[in-house]
Amino acid sequence: MKNKLPYVKEYRDLLAYKKTLELAEIVFQETKSFPKEEVFSLTNQLRRSSRSIGVQIAESWGKRLYVKHFISKLTDAISELYETEHWLDIAYNCKYINIKTRNELSEKCKEIGRLLGGMISKADLFCEKTGGQIKEKLSEYF
Fold first, then answer.
1. pLDDT tens digit string along 45-88?
2. What are phi and psi of 97, to 5 degrees?
3. Are the beta carbons of 20 and 53 closer than 8 angstroms?
4. Alpha-carbon distances, residue 108 vs 8, 20, 62, 101 (angstroms)
């Protein structure tokens, strides 16, 4: 399937996706120092939600045949972004991260949110408006 953005060949080329990988890596590194009793709660939740943002972007790429499906997955990414920010607030309130780290991660989240908002507002540039390219899309995998 051809999108209307020649510089974007796959979801890995998207700046929003690249930024989510950075965020997830920083979250992973920061959570290594969380107390052991948080492993199955805060640590797990924060890692999962930060990683899920990129997953939703990747899934949106697979939904590009239809604009509404594409946008739906991007809004799921935004939901995961908000969840990540919530867990960061909890981590800060528990004094597991300092204010500087909290603010830096919050800025990364806001940047990703702006990128996702831009993708949603320009969804037609990423998507085919009809399902006519299904065979071509499927041929990438079969």
1. 999 999 999 999 999 999 998 999 999 999 999 999 999 999 99
2. -130, 155
3. yes
4. 22, 9, 25, 11
Mean pLDDT calculated for residue range 20-31? 98
**64 Rama sector, left if φ>0, alpha if ψ -120 to 50, beta otherwise:** alpha
User: How is residue 92 written in tokens?
Assistant: 């800060």
Which of 23, 3, 42 shows the shortest CA–CA distance to 112?
Answer: 23
The pLDDT of residue 129 is above 70 = no
d(CA 3, CA 128): 7
Residues with Cβ within 8 Å of 71's Cβ and at least 6 positions away in sequence, in order, are 60, 120, 123
pTM confidence score: 0.86
Left, alpha or beta for 141 (phi > 0: left; psi -120 to 50: alpha)?
Answer: alpha
List the structure tokens of 142: 């079969």
Cα–Cα separations (whole angstroms), residue 120 to 15, 54, 59, 105, 127:
14, 15, 14, 22, 11
Q: How far is CA 107 from CA 19, 50, 62, 81, 103, in A?
A: 11, 14, 28, 12, 6
Residues 29, 105: Cα–Cα separation, whole Å:
12
User: 84 near 92, Cβ under 8 Å?
Assistant: no
